[in-house]
């Protein structure tokens, strides 16, 4: 348990920030799953549009350092390769 006012405040902030970061990570996973689902369905137009939207989400989360920039690049690369293989 935090003993000082400063430590109590930091504990409160940590809880709030953890909830925000968890929501951001969830949005990242949802975006990746949406592209995978569109690719599995075989609809290239929908998959391409979903891919562009997910790239924006992935980049914004990486810019905020919620996920590492290399992880973001890896996911974008693999999704792009899967999209290209669909053609």
UniProtKB/TrEMBL annotation:
Task of the protein: Binds directly to 16S ribosomal RNA.
GO terms (BP aspect): translation
Organism: Oxalicibacterium flavum
PANTHER family: 30S RIBOSOMAL PROTEIN S20 (PTHR33398), SMALL RIBOSOMAL SUBUNIT PROTEIN BS20C (PTHR33398:SF1)
Name this polypeptide is given: Small ribosomal subunit protein bS20
Entry coiled-coil feature ranges: none
Record field: transmembrane: none
Gene Ontology, cellular component aspect: cytosol; small ribosomal subunit
Region: Disordered, residue numbers: 1-26
Stated family: Belongs to the bacterial ribosomal protein bS20 family.
InterPro entries for the chain: Ribosomal_bS20, Ribosomal_bS20_sf
Gene Ontology MF, one: structural constituent of ribosome
Assigned keywords, A-Z: Ribonucleoprotein, Ribosomal protein, RNA-binding, rRNA-binding
Gene name for this UniProt entry: rpsT
């Amino acid at each position: 348990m935090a003993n000082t006012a400063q430590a109590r405040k930091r504990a409160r902030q940590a809880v709030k920030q953890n909830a925000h970061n968890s929501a951001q990570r969830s949005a990242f996973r949802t975006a990746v799953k949406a592209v995978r689902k569109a690719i599995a369905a075989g609809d290239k137009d929908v998959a391409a549009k979903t891919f562009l939207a997910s790239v924006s989400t992935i980049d914004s989360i990486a810019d905020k350092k919620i996920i590492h920039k290399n992880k973001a690049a890896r996911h974008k690369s693999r999704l792009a390769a899967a999209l290209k293989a669909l053609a």
